Amino acid sequence: MGERKWRQAESLLQSMGTRLQEGMVPSKIFNDPEIFELEKERVFTKAWVFLGHESEIPNPGDYVVRYIVDDSFIVIRDEDSNIQVFFNSCSHRGMQICNVEMGNTSHFRCPYHGWTFKNNGKLVGIPFGNEVYGKDGLKKDQWGLRCAPKFDCYNGLIFACLDANAVSLDEYLGDFKWYLDIYLKKSEAGMEVIGAPQRWIVDADWKLGADNFIGDGYHTATSHRSTVDVGVLPVPGANFHKNGVQVYADPGGVGLITLPPQSFMGYPESIVESMKRSLKPEQFRLLSGEHFQNQYSLFQTHGGVFPNLSFLNAPGSIKPGGPPIPYLTIRIWNPIGPGKMEVWSWFLVEKDAPEWFKEASYRAYVLSFGSSGTLEQDDTENWRSITRVAKGTMAKNHFLNYQMGMATGMQPLSDWPGPGVAYPIAYIEANQRAFFAKWFQYMCQA
Ligand code: FES
Ligand SMILES: [Fe+2]
């Protein structure tokens, strides 16, 4: 029955195997109901998915509500300051127990029959309990809120996994932790999220966001050219994204873009000093440009972790022609239907940064990659278009080209200081090929 149920998706996957090795990806996977259902079952129930950042819930009782596809979770700091991830569903009859997106509470009281749970998930109150279940009739300790099968944190990032048999988060993130640290350990004080994440729904496949952030330096010269022309991006020319290094270290990849020496993208002196103490020397050498013999310095980095977490650390301008102000955004592309996703975008900043910088950095982010950001809108239109095309009949036999770097036989760097496979240019599609190979592997595991 299972196989018949997914017949079209399975045959699409079958046709994909060898083509993928040639750098070809079928258009149809970007808008197909069966592929979407299979992704729910084989990717999003198996992989670790990002839910939020510890700084969003700093105090006991603080919580936020987050999602893995359709499943809603309460991510909460309990009275003992432990982070918990509860399935947002009452253990009596399944009603959603928490109906607001964030807050602080000692208890959740179900609106249906009033079962009451402490913020550590324990069931503590049942209306008319003794009368309707008898004294000791219902074992309260067996009817607490259900936890996500697995959840854990890395450097402040909170993840959950729906597969109780999955590897640990530490093992899952593997070699990619080295790159995550570059984002998250820029200051000894750590990072904090400012404001609530922005959310918006886009008629586009979630994989297109992941594909773009993990490796698509190539689109910037065309898609974002106007932002360069009008001076809202502090770069000398539209091909600013070409030079750099692209690295894949399973389960994620980054593009590290270089430009002639800048001063740490515009980070304040105190943060640069903090970075120096917090990062490994070889990581700091990358940021400072020493690794590139001081001919270039790291200008911006973009990346992604399988399946749907992406990030971008880039400088923007607050006013046209103004100095660069760097910002860090983390986002997820949550699939909510075939060819449809909800984007969640967080802004993070170094906790010990000066107030003026936190404000300027937030503005630089909102102007470029918030929901109304200039670059965000450029990207969104591309992904909507690809998704719309992928829905049609012609798309059934249409394969897309992901061959950049294969034809030139480009070889990985032999002296790269970090883990993974690194190529000496940013215009290459090695990371996207690695992303789709991983997606394919998950999709083929019944
Ligand atoms: S469904 Fe929650 S108390 Fe009945
Ligand atoms: Fe873009």
TrEMBL record:
<dbReference type="InterPro" id="IPR043257">
    <property type="entry name" value="Rieske_N"/>
</dbReference>
<keyword id="KW-0479">Metal-binding</keyword>
<dbReference type="InterPro" id="IPR017941">
    <property type="entry name" value="Rieske_2Fe-2S"/>
</dbReference>
<keyword id="KW-0560">Oxidoreductase</keyword>
<keyword id="KW-0520">NAD</keyword>
<keyword id="KW-0223">Dioxygenase</keyword>
<keyword id="KW-0058">Aromatic hydrocarbons catabolism</keyword>
<comment type="similarity">
    <text>Belongs to the bacterial ring-hydroxylating dioxygenase alpha subunit family.</text>
</comment>
<keyword id="KW-0411">Iron-sulfur</keyword>
<feature type="domain" description="Rieske">
    <location>
        <begin position="48"/>
        <end position="127"/>
    </location>
</feature>
<dbReference type="GO" id="GO:0016705">
    <property type="term" value="F:oxidoreductase activity, acting on paired donors, with incorporation or reduction of molecular oxygen"/>
</dbReference>
<dbReference type="InterPro" id="IPR043266">
    <property type="entry name" value="RHO_NdoB-like_C"/>
</dbReference>
<dbReference type="GO" id="GO:0004497">
    <property type="term" value="F:monooxygenase activity"/>
</dbReference>
<dbReference type="InterPro" id="IPR001663">
    <property type="entry name" value="Rng_hydr_dOase-A"/>
</dbReference>
<dbReference type="InterPro" id="IPR015881">
    <property type="entry name" value="ARHD_Rieske_2Fe_2S"/>
</dbReference>
<dbReference type="GO" id="GO:0051213">
    <property type="term" value="F:dioxygenase activity"/>
</dbReference>
<dbReference type="Pfam" id="PF00355">
    <property type="entry name" value="Rieske"/>
</dbReference>
<protein>
    <submittedName>
        <fullName>Large subunit of biphenyl dioxygenase</fullName>
    </submittedName>
</protein>
<keyword id="KW-0408">Iron</keyword>
<keyword id="KW-0001">2Fe-2S</keyword>
<dbReference type="GO" id="GO:0051537">
    <property type="term" value="F:2 iron, 2 sulfur cluster binding"/>
</dbReference>
<dbReference type="InterPro" id="IPR015879">
    <property type="entry name" value="Ring_hydroxy_dOase_asu_C_dom"/>
</dbReference>
<keyword id="KW-0614">Plasmid</keyword>
<dbReference type="InterPro" id="IPR036922">
    <property type="entry name" value="Rieske_2Fe-2S_sf"/>
</dbReference>
<dbReference type="Pfam" id="PF00848">
    <property type="entry name" value="Ring_hydroxyl_A"/>
</dbReference>
<dbReference type="GO" id="GO:0005506">
    <property type="term" value="F:iron ion binding"/>
</dbReference>
